[in-house]
Amino acid sequence: MNDDLKSILDGALLSDGSFIQTSTISSYFSMSLTEVNEDWIHSIATHFDKYGIEYKISRRNGCKRVSKGNIINEKPSVRITTPCYRNLLSERQRWYVNGLKIIPQDLKLNDVVLAGWFMGDGSTSIPRAHNTHITLHTEGFKQNDVEFLSNKLSEFGIKFRVLKRNRNKEQFILVATRLNAEKFIEIVKNHVTNSFSHKLKYSRWVAPSCKICSKEIYTTENFKKYCDSCVPKSVQNLRRSRSQNVKFNMLRKSKRSIASGRKSETDILLVENHNSQVITRIDTAKRLKEERILNRKIWEQMVRKHIWPTQEKMKELIEITSISEIAKAVGVSVVCISKKCKQWDLKVKPPEYWNFHEKVRSENFIF
To answer: In Å, how far from its chain's centre is CA 305?
Structure first.
């Protein structure tokens, strides 16, 4: 089979197309779309004409039907089918195992395949300003197949996250945001038909800039308005409190699930990690307290060794030199000298006095 035709069929099979087997030797291609998206059916038909493949286009009017007690309004649709071909049986076996559609391991993605996939099962949304989301709906595939597609898309430099669509069911989707969404649209836009052009509209993402230094901030946090070097203390405390609240809520949910008997491995690991962190914090607090007590004892012993001047001698010294010089001579800090002077009710001259006057040093400056 020609590579161009194979790309067209692979793009259709990733979305709404299918290979139907009616015998043990052949299979045929079929795809149905709403009447609004008829131009994609005709684009596939032009490729079939190019390679000499017969096809039939049929129409179906809209109707109402009941499914599981619910009334469903079906829109008018267009369907393209081919006759049974022996060559299509190998494609059927490539895409289906035991009647279930899978992702073949030899799948090669290109711009044509991605465009067909995007037109059939892709959607674009802009939940916030300058933040485009592209979702590829892969609920019909297993998690291994969805992760395989995500790895294939990473070869184009596009990061798609695998997310769980429903908590109760094993359904997964692929989601790309911001710059990744823009890259994907730039790749597929030349192969998307007119009826799907509304999916190509996106809001170009602009990186937020710091309010102080105007530096670009690459972050997923929408409330971040300052870079790490310019962030004020109030905002820094707010960020810390928000992250702590998120961790606290996760820990509280894990403890509740363990207490109710609905525990999982992640809950157990989270609680054990928290308990180990608490133990380490207590140990470090005890160690720091012991070090402070030890340092205080050492400092008191050092202060006792110093020979302090008498009150009369101190009164003479503060008149002829600054308390910083006295502290150097005694071997203690300036705070100790000022506290001693305050204890003895001695008035100390400010440092500015000694900056603008010559320091008169006494010849008998010896304790």
So the answer is: 60
CB-hemisphere CA count at 13 Å for 217?
20
**pLDDT by residue (tens digit) across 344-354?**
888 888 877 77
Q: How far apart are the first and last CA of the chain?
A: 104
pTM: 0.59
For the chain, the C-alpha Rg in angstroms (whole number) is 38
Task: Render pLDDT for 4-27 as a digit per residue (tens, 0 to 9).
Answer: 899 999 999 999 899 999 888 999
pLDDT for res 81: 95
Per-residue pLDDT band for 96 (boundaries 50, 70, 90) equals very high
The answer for residues whose C-beta is within 8 angstroms of residue 45's C-beta and 6 or more apart is: 55, 57, 80
Choose among 33, 27, 31: nearest CA to 86.
27
Give the per-residue pLDDT at 291.
80
- Which residues have CB under 8 Å from 88's CB, separation 6+? 19, 26, 27, 28, 29, 82
Residue for token digits 């290109």? 110
Give the 3-state secondary structure of the chain. Answer: CCHHHHHHHHHHHCCCCEEECCCCCCEEEEEEEEHHHHHHHHHHHHHHHHCCCCCEEEEECCEEEEECCEEEEECCEEEEECCCECHHHHHHHHHEECCEECCCCCCCCCHHHHHHHHHHHEEEEEEECCEEEEEEECCCCCHHHHHHHHHHHHCCCCCCEEEEEECCCCEEEEEEEHHHHHHHHHHHHHHCCHHHHHHHCCCCCCCCECCCCCCECCCCCCCCCCCCCCCCHHHHHHHHHHHHHHHHHHHHHHHHHHHCCCCCHHHHHHHHHHHHHHHHHHHHHHHHHHHHHHHHHHHHHHHHHCCCCCHHHHHHHHHHCCHHHHHHHHCCCHHHHHHHHHHCCCCCCCHHHHHHCCCCCCCCCCC
Mean pLDDT of the 285-302 span:
73
User: Hunting for tokens 């959607």 — which residue is that?
Assistant: 123
Average pLDDT over residues 92-114: 92
Q: What are phi and psi of 187, to 5 degrees?
A: -75, -40
- The residue among 318 and 206 whose pLDDT is bigger is 318
Contact by Cβ (8 Å): 158, 176:
yes
